[in-house]
Amino acid sequence: MEKFKKIISQYPFLGFIIAYLVLLCVPTIFFTDLYQSHLSSLIFINIIVAAGLNIVKGYCGQVTVGHVGLYAVGSYTAGCMFMYLGSDLWMTLPAAIIVTGLFGIAFGIPSFRLEGPYLALATLGGGEAIRLFIENGEFFGSTYGISSISQPVIFGVPFDTPDKYYYISMPVMLIAVYFSYSILKSSIGRAFMSVREDPISAAASGIDIKKYKILAFILSAMFAGAAGAVYAHLPPGYIHPNNYTVIEMVTFLAMVVFGGLGHIWGGIIGAIIITIVYDLTRPLYEYQLFIFGLTIVLTILFMPKGIGGFIDKIFIDKRFKKKKVEEGK
Amino acid sequence: MLLKTKNLMKAFGGLKAIDKVDFELPAGEIRGIIGPNGSGKSTFFNLVSGVYDPDPGSYIEFNGHDITNEPPHKIGALGLSRTFQLLRLYQDMSVINNVMSGYHTRVKYKFFDAVIGRKKIWDQEKEIKDEMMELLSFVGLADYAELNASELSGGQRRLLVLARAIAMKPKLLMLDEPAAGLSPVNVDNLMKIIMQLKDKYGLTLIIIEHILKVVMDTCNTVTVLDHGQKIAEGTPSQVKDDNAVIEAYLGKKMNDEEMRKALAV
């Protein structure tokens, strides 16, 4: 086991290949109906968004509430490209990532001067503006949304049902998580954290604060864009402005906060749990928002670093105590 | 000269926090800066390290580069490191991450290597971690590497801040009250570590300190600031006997008549 751990820490790529192989087998073994595949795809999409949000919110500490706007930009880039150019996922995905990245710059610029709640307000305005712009634009299908967006075809096989689309969304998710892992584990992740903790002493250590703030926004926007494009093509391929409201944003935030702000797996743990809970509690529709709000508040009060941080803390304390005991002997 | 300021000025509104200070520091020296509270010592640090922009007409040169209006991260990258009076630790990061983020300017790999996660990243990260662990064990914090910085005691925090400032392998290290709030034993221990680090990395030091024993024992030269002006400079023993310095700290020497006048008013 120790040896295995060592190999993985040297070649993290291997870990993701193993995860890929495991996830490939999951549907055939466990899934009994199409809905489970559909739900898994939703989980994967949410993981991509949450992993991105964790970069800007958890690691870089910039409070953004407009992320759902970027998600919408990704979706509608894909949707419009399909509607006007007839492109499929292989074209719309990179395009959505690039376009959303550019929007990320616009969201990041206010962070140079605004902090905390003020930045939250600015980004909230940005996100809502995007949604309203889409809702009122004929070009974007206004309130009708865009429907029957095509599913990708590989070697003549259309991936047009939820159980097949699983095999599209899953690798995209794994690649996104891999990127987020390697970014956050490198010196870039540490620079993000030090910008979050103390910008002045970060600058004294030679870290360019503005560069890393805008970088965090661009990267997380790219994740949101990728997720948006995958969502747009999700069978039955229907997107509507109502999918990108503040309510969705609260859900994304709940994922990151619950999973663990600034924890490398935080967004992923949170996305899995919250998406499943969200789905199971659909009959209690009226109370969902209340429950999610309460979850965020309680998590911040009693588990400020979320599930991920909580588990980490237990292990670290254990190791520290063990070391102290060994020294005592 | 490693660090040179000419005509350095900074005014906050009407208050001249630093008033035409000329300062020269040759490489390898240990320089002490003393002065009463509010005399501009910390402002001097903030100006040199780029936290504040100096007023027009000032000139700061570091290691041959004009850094007068450079942003702090560029000055840091040139090899000027500093600590803060209020520490400014990264509270919510582990001790090892605190030190490793100080290494930032020396990281060799490029941005896209990190995004793709190439193997050389993980190799280099491991090297950095080993080197930083060595530094941590040098200052005596290796056991605490995984804990959050907020869980350390006051003395350990001071050591951690020192280690973080050293991690970037600076040419010049500016310490803003490194021993504030420490017990006499801890002060001696800290100064010993600082001196060992100085020899190990060939540092030049500027130390702001209120504990005069520290300044008198360790510094080659002492600069005294008062009301933003440099009022004396010289070896510790010279400065100790300087009239202007005594006046700044203890007040003016008065004869009987002057005293009566002052009291009558």
Q: Can you walk me through this structure?
A:
The complex is a heterodimer of chains A (329) and B (265). With 329 residues, chain A is an all-alpha fold. Chain A folds into two domains: 30 residues, no CATH class; 295 residues, ABC transporter involved in vitamin B12 uptake, BtuC (Orthogonal Bundle). Chain A contains 14 helices and two strands. A two-stranded antiparallel ribbon of chain A has the order 1-2. In chain A, a hairpin with a 2-residue loop joins β1 and β2. Chain A is globular. Chain A starts with a helix and ends with a helix. Chain B has 265 residues and is of the alpha/beta class. Chain B has two domains: 176 residues, Rossmann fold, CATH 3.40.50.300; 78 residues, no CATH class. Chain B is built from eleven helices and ten strands. In chain B, the strands form two sheets. Chain B has a six-stranded mixed sheet, sandwiched between helices. In chain B, strands 2-1-4-5 form a four-stranded antiparallel sheet, covered by helices on one side. Classes of the chains: A mainly alpha (329), B alpha/beta (265). At the A-B interface, α7, α8, α9 and α14 of A face α2, α3, α4 and α5 of B.
Strand order of the biggest β-sheet of chain A: 1-2
The number of helices of chain A is 14
Strand content range of chain A: under 5%
Q: What is the element string of chain A, with H for helices and E for strands?
A: HHHHHHEEHHHHHHHH
